[in-house]
Design a protein that fits this description.
Layout (H helix, E strand, L loop, with lengths): L1 H39 L1 H44 L4 E2 L7 H14 L3 E8 L2 E9 L2 E11 L1 H18 L5 E12 L1 H4 L6 E2 L6 E9 L4 E3 L7 H10 L17 H10 L4 H6 L6
Helix pairs in contact: 1-2
């Protein structure tokens, strides 16, 4: 992936330089064209016009090549880069030791911040301990003894169904929060994944996993986004930017494995849908 991104950045730099040169030349040509015609005649003016057309054509060709090759995977790779560069975990400032206690203080905070609360709500066959809604912000909370990958996938899909099919919302930010005594590594691998509902990313679903035994909170915390603020404020009970004392100092094993796996990234497999990061 690193080599692919280097090549992408190089091509983008070339594109930007070409666009700047074309824009400057066109600006100068438009202003100087009457003078050229008067001083040097039609031949020089025609040559200048051909140069302008050539620059425009070259810019359009380069823009087409860049967008057709890189635009589809750009946000995907950017998300992976955030995941790889993020801290392995964060520490919650809350001191509650049981899922029930943690849920109670979160409920109180959400009520105080004007969220509409529904407790013990069943969505698409799955039981959520709490759903909080305010404007375009949606928070789903699940208390479980042990969280694994299947839990993360299933509950997030249920939350997506609730927001998009039941409430018919297409814009906003949703966070699925798991409060647990123990977290499986397979669940941690999905904790930093942000799921967009459409290409324009008008609706985003994020995960946050609180591990009470260690006080850790697993989520994508280095990307400036509404979900980052929601998790920091309501789940961890801290401010943005997150203070150093709440940031873990080590990477997780899965981040190292993901980095190795992304070395196999290629555009052909990605476009064919046969490459998966997780």
């Amino acid at each position: 992936m690193e080599q692919f991104r280097k090549k992408q950045r190089k091509n983008k730099k070339i594109l930007n330089i070409l666009l700047i040169i074309s824009a400057v030349y066109m600006f100068l040509y438009i202003g100087a064209e009457p003078i050229l015609a008067k001083q040097f005649g039609g031949v020089i003016t025609m040559i200048s016009a051909y140069i302008a057309y050539a620059l425009i054509l070259a810019s359009l060709i380069m823009l087409f090549i860049y967008t057709s090759k890189y635009s589809k995977c750009d946000k995907y790779l950017e998300a992976i880069e955030y995941e790889l560069s993020d801290a392995g975990y964060y520490f919650t400032s809350r001191t509650e030791k049981t899922p029930e206690q943690y849920l109670d203080v979160m409920r109180e905070d959400l009520v105080n911040h004007g969220f509409d609360i529904k407790s013990n709500i069943e969505i698409d066959g799955f039981e959520f301990d709490l759903r909080a809604v305010k404007g375009k912000e949606y928070i789903y909370i699940v208390c479980v003894d042990d969280v694994d990958k299947n839990d993360v996938i299933a509950y997030q899909e249920s939350a997506i169904y609730d927001v998009t099919a039941t409430m018919l919302k297409r814009k906003g930010n949703a966070v699925v929060v798991f409060i647990s005594n123990k977290v499986q590594e397979s669940a941690v691998e999905l904790s930093k994944v942000i799921t967009p509902i459409d290409k324009k990313e008008r609706m985003l679903f994020s995960n946050a996993i609180v591990e009470l035994d260690t006080g850790r909170c697993y989520f994508l915390g280095n990307k400036p986004a509404k979900s980052q603020q929601m998790i920091a404020n309501y789940v961890m009970n801290c401010e943005i930017p997150i203070k150093d004392k709440y940031i873990g100092k080590e990477k997780l094993p899965y981040q190292h494995r993901l980095k190795e796996h992304m070395n196999d990234f290629n555009l052909k497999d990605y476009n064919n849908g046969t490459f998966s990061a997780h």
